[in-house]
Specification:
alpha/beta, UDP-n-acetylglucosamine1-carboxyvinyl-transferase, Chain, 2 domains, four-stranded mixed beta sheet, 14 helices, 24 strands, 31% helix
Length: 418
């Protein structure tokens, strides 16, 4: 079984280039199904979530090539299929193929999606969106199938679900008439999907707001698009640097929306400076506790940074509380940080952190992507050697995390341990 070996205690120092956004490339990949012509996505991260989605698309006749950060996609021979659990069960991004294939072919089918175990994450809202556009759905133990000629209309989301918003956009682009999605998620990745589609010929108004107006029926063409950097990866590397008392210059950050993340960093005493294309962080003299921090949809503090922030605040002098309001089971980091000496408790949906303890090396296990990133960060700041299992989860969203941290001076490597 592979794992990551880390000898902590070294300050992270240096500069690295930020990878392209995971949460933007997955819906854009799904959107490429709607394009007539070659799609080129630049700055595409070589992560397992992307590779898994490309395998699913390949099974539907869609060819692709990823080399040196440039992904080419050819959908000319695409055909609708039922995406079984061997595809849907591996990455949450696969659920977006429902909206894309329904839009292009009038039919789509998929086993229930997988990914990290951080909560129920039902697809009820996705199904509700399709029904609002007059599609017919059939749900069974095997999964969901959806068929029909889509028609535009008023789509009101009771919660700003990112995935349901993206599926609604993908379907509405191909629907007959005008669709108005209200209560839409405003995350930067949703905005980026809209910009990609508009560049390909879609008619979308209200980009970046909670009300999107989409005029369907436009014939989309091939397009070349460059992804912005990954804001969660940026937050992870900046936070890890602060935990080790170091300094980092993060390049390739132009257009990266750090709202919510920077607000929490400021509250914890982490000062960052940025210009057009880079972010610099000098570690503070001490990390400050945060009395109360709640995860929330954008522009609030992102749930994808909750595990990393828990690790950061474990080093603060004083008590902090983080409330997880998005996923009901996203607390995998708590028992593992305890093993490393952190004083953390999970109380319902609240994580209570009594900071100030020194962390020590330990063997720990990641059960999801962001827990894995948080445990690597904690191990870098800890005294002694740590072994982090579950690196396959980390590979879902971080492009060679070991190489990046080695560039910053860390003693870290992938290895095989029995």
């Amino acid at each position: 079984m592979s794992c990551i070996r880390i000898v902590g205690g070294r300050k992270l120092e240096g500069e690295v280039m930020l990878q392209g956004s995971k949460n933007a490339v997955l819906p854009i990949l799904a959107a490429s199904v709607l394009c007539n012509g070659k799609v080129v996505i630049k700055r595409c991260p070589n992560i397992s979530d992307v590779r898994e989605l490309l395998q699913a698309l390949d099974s539907a006749g869609i060819k692709s090539s990823l080399r040196d950060g440039e992904l080419e996609v050819d959908t000319v021979n695409a055909t609708p299929i039922f995406f079984g659990p061997e595809y849907a069960g591996k990455t949450r991004g696969g659920v977006l193929l429902l909206g894309a294939f329904l839009g292009r072919f009038g039919e789509a089918g998929m086993a229930y999606p997988g990914g990290c175990v951080i909560g129920a994450r039902p697809i009820d809202l996705h199904c509700k969106v399709f029904r609002m556009m007059q599609a017919k759905l059939k749900e069974s133990e095997e999964g969901v199938t959806v068929k029909g000629k889509l028609k535009g209309g008023k789509i009101k989301l009771p919660y700003p679900s990112v995935g349901a918003t993206e599926n609604g956009i993908l379907a509405a682009v191909c629907a007959e008439g005008v669709s108005v999605i209200s209560g839409a998620a405003t995350e930067p990745e949703v905005t980026e999907l809209c910009r990609f589609l508009r560049k390909a010929g879609a008619k979308i108004r209200g980009i970046g707001t909670s009300v999107l107006e989409i005029t369907g029926g436009s014939r989309l063409h091939g397009v070349e698009y460059t992804l912005t950097g990954d804001r969660i990866v940026a937050g992870t590397y900046l936070g890890a640097t602060a935990m080790t008392g170091g300094e980092i210059l993060l390049r390739g950050t132009e257009g990266v929306c750090m709202k919510g993340i920077f607000d929490s960093f400021s509250a914890a005493g982490l000062s960052v400076s940025r210009n057009r294309d880079c972010i610099r962080l000098h570690a503070p003299g001490k990390i400050l506790p945060i009395k109360e921090l709640k995860t929330a949809p954008y522009p609030g503090f992102p749930t994808d940074m909750q595990s990393q922030m828990t690790a950061i605040l474990s080093l603060a002098e004083g008590e902090s509380k983080i409330y997880e309001t998005v996923f009901e089971s996203r607390f995998g980091v708590v028992p593992e940080l305890k093993k490393m000496g952190a004083d953390v408790q999970n109380e319902g949906r609240c994580i209570r952190i009594r900071g100030g303890n020194r962390l020590h090396g330990e063997t720990v296990y990641a059960t999801d992507l962001r827990t894995g990133a948080a445990l690597v960060s904690a191990a870098l700041a800890a005294e002694g050697e740590s072994i982090v299992y579950g690196d396959e989860y980390i590979d879902r969203g971080y492009e060679d995390i070991c190489k990046t941290f080695r560039l910053l001076g860390a003693d870290i490597s992938e290895t095989d341990e029995k």
